[in-house]
Structure of ABC transporter transmembrane domain-containing protein:
Amino acid sequence: MHSSLILWLYSYLKPYKTRIGIALFALLVSAGSWLMLGQGIKYVIDEGFIAADSQTLETMLSGVLAIALIGCVATYFRFYNMLWLGERVSANIRNALYTKMLALDMHFYSTNRTGEVISRFTSDTTVLQSVIGSGLSMAIRATVTFVGALILMFVTSIKLTLLVMLAIPCILLPIKLLGKKVRYHSQLAQDKVADMSAHIDQSLHGIHTIQAYSKEEADQSALHEKVEEAMRAAQDRIHFRALLIICVMGISIFAIVFVAWLGATSVIVGNMSPGSLSAFIFYAMMAGGAVATISEVFGEIQKAKGASQRIRELLDTPTPIHSEESEVTSLALDTIADTTPILTLDALSFAYPGTDKLVLNDISLRLLSKQKIALVGPSGAGKSTLFDILLRFYDATDGSCYLAAHHYQSLTLGQIRQQFALVPQEPVIFATDIATNIAYGDQNATSSQIEDAAKLANAHEFIVKLKEGYATQVGERGVKLSGGQKQRIAIARAILANRPILLLDEATSALDANSEASVQAGLANLMANRTSIVIAHRLATVQHADTIIVMDEGKVVAQGSHQTLLIESELYRELAKLQFIE
Ligand SMILES: Nc1ncnc2c1ncn2[C@@H]1O[C@H](COP(=O)(O)OP(=O)(O)OP(=O)(O)O)[C@@H](O)[C@H]1O
């Protein structure tokens, strides 16, 4: 029933066989000790207590204490090792999830919510951790105890045991029926929690806008609704789980009381010793307790099944864009002659996965080394999409891409992406200090290299004016920096990365004239002696590009210099007119 879950968990548990061995051994010893305690009780009553022999009573009691002590020590080892395994396995699953997360492609991220992914890391792995650490351990211990207690019950009295066993089908029935309900509601509750995480994630990212629009109350009530939905789902799960536990407990207690009554009658007529009856009841209660534990853990295991399903779903998500082995050992794009194409697109078309609208339509381009190339065109023309294809975030639906003379498919993802430095429209700044943010371009850079890059990017001046200079913490997503400062840090990062091709999505946000000039000077340094492809939103900045490519509705409609395009391309003329450049 739970074989797929167990098998999957086993693949994570396999490396820790010694610890599992110790835990299982400790488990057997502790279960054995508690079972032996029943025999001890029998002898204490029959040989010491009833025979009124204080010497035997003392010996027996010491024996009982020794057994209890062994049971305690073994329990410690079982507990420690099982909890350790739970923590270790969930930590390893988190690592595996993170590796997968880094490999998942843009299609995944455009169709999934980040909050849901985060909830796999946090809540789902925590469920597994508790199931391995305590749930599984309790289930195994209860099973061993149940089997042991049953055997000893048989040894003590076959007749009474057979009578007790009549209760078993009555116990299994609620487990079967209510277990199904528990599983269904567990899955639902976890989904609701993931939904809630997604909402929180979105609000955290948009907190600035929420507060600016005074939408706190509306957002609070939207979350409140989700919290309540999660609560309702959890409530249903708890209801069925509690029902399951009391059914099992009630039936077990009823059976034990009934059997105790029958046993007491046997003791009265002298067919059974009082010690045996006490031991029998002790075992029957242990067996009953074990069944109750199993039914309780059953709910936990159902919950874990849901969690593991979601984790496995993520781990098994296919990644169509992956790195193949490559026979190309060195690309050496730096050494390409200036008149040779560094990038070639050959009849390239692209539609986003799951759609059939061609966002890029039959594009053929030869981009020469060391040239400054500008991409212009109306919003939605496909300029950003072209960048994504160049970085191989997506594979072209039709046609081909070449770096120098190498087809993209003959290169690894790393080989392709290492040729590009990307400066996006919204600079991505990490919540750490300035030096680390710049060094993202080259993690082995020395501090003087970092400073040189910052100087070229026109960032050094403002950085040294900050209280802690390069060690200044910039806050989450760089909130402590201005727009222009963030852009210059992103430029310094790209300068330090020193990649042969620069992909620049020019910022549209208005900077003041000073800041703009500063950023432009930094960009000029970045583009010097490099192939650069710039998505230009303002034509003023690209008039001196070597080639301007005009895109419209996924097609290249014209290309050439500013002057030729003013004459040859109506669309370019229109764009220029709109921006008062002619
Ligand atoms: N992940 C996606 N899934 C489906 N369609 C998308 C996706 N991303 C973009 N598109 C669509 O692709 C088209 C081209 O978008 P793209 O962002 O490349 O245009 P753009 O020229 O960069 O526009 P802008 O100048 O406004 O940034 C648009 O119609 C857009 O709706």
